[in-house]
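Subgroup meeting minutes
Present: P.N., E.W., G.H.
Scribe: E.W.

1. P.N. recapped why we're keeping a running log of single-chain structure predictions: easier to compare across weeks, and new members can see raw inputs and outputs side by side.
2. G.H. added today's entry (402 aa).
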Amino acid sequence: MDVPLPIDEITLGEPLPVHVWDARGQLLLRKGDVIRDERHREWLRMHAPMIRREDHETWRFHYTAALDRALRSNRSLDDLAHIARPMQFDEPAEPDESSRPLGEQLADLHTVLTLLLHQGEQAQDFAGRFVRVDRRLHTLLLRRADDVLLVLVQMLFDRELGYSASHALTCASVAELVAQTLQWPEATGDAVRRAALSMNVGMARLHDDLARQDAPLNPQQRRAVHEHPVRGEDILRRVGVSDPLWLELVRDHHEVRGGGGYPRGLTEVSEPAQLLRLVDVYVARLSPRLHRPGLPAQQAARDVCLDASGVPTPLGAALVRTLGLYVPGSYVELASGELAMVVRRGKRVTTPLVLALTGRDGLPRGEPLLRDTADPTYEVRHSVAPEHVRVRVAVDRLLARL
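Output recorded in log:
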């Protein structure tokens, strides 16, 4: 995907760090070429110069980094005003965060995403910071998908955390994993993940408020909820998002095939948009609110995956194949009488690996014990809603046992 070259921000005579193309894909300038003078700039402008999205994102990252360095050096406002977008750059080295506890890493992403969703287009360098959150989450999912699900589901259960960011991070993770199960193209999976992270940017503060509200929506809130898909699309356009699928998904994630959704009441809805809506509803049903408890994982999965006649939909079946009936981070009661947390998806959707948190007597264990629910002694008896769990869990300490 290409984006327009910010041609007015380029210093004349400085080597370009990227290839430049016209709208038809014809190469205009190679990496290392220069824009010689204003006449050359005007000639380029007539050809609608474009650069690859990945190059543009790296460019923005380096501009922000230059500003950060200047601020830390206490340089004057006049100096800051004259910082140009750096044209010569090496690929930024990814900080090595592998030694940090996963819970801390995801908490950091939660903090940044909360700020971006709340501030929207008013956030400084929304695009650059959003890209870094998205890339980090994607990397963690590639390396530790079950652990990421476990931590994020536990974050959903924590009412002290801002709900909008917890919901977004969990939806993005589930959506990407289901897209992989469906073997969708990587670009489609990326768009679904990014749309899940940003789909509620048009109502993030209200999203947090509603999670703590023990009353029906008032007319003003209902109107804001109805309008948030279009408002979210507008915000994303203003901060520089141009991916048509990403924007479509944010706009259409509450549309329902056959009609009855909002904001436009479409009867035909793309499959990625249907998946995003399915994941949105699934994660919402897992999540406890002030006015209702979170559903047990098995019930949440069945509720969103079956059609009106009780038959699994294709997307619903894909979600269950991906997560199992008991998503990591959720709770189950075992045939042994033990209360356990799901920590790994199993070979079958009904046989996850779990850590027993209590004994048969219901008392907390000093150290959780790993159980394979494929063993009939420890098979899952039923899901347990988070409100019914009284055992405190230190997630990073628990992950260290796996």
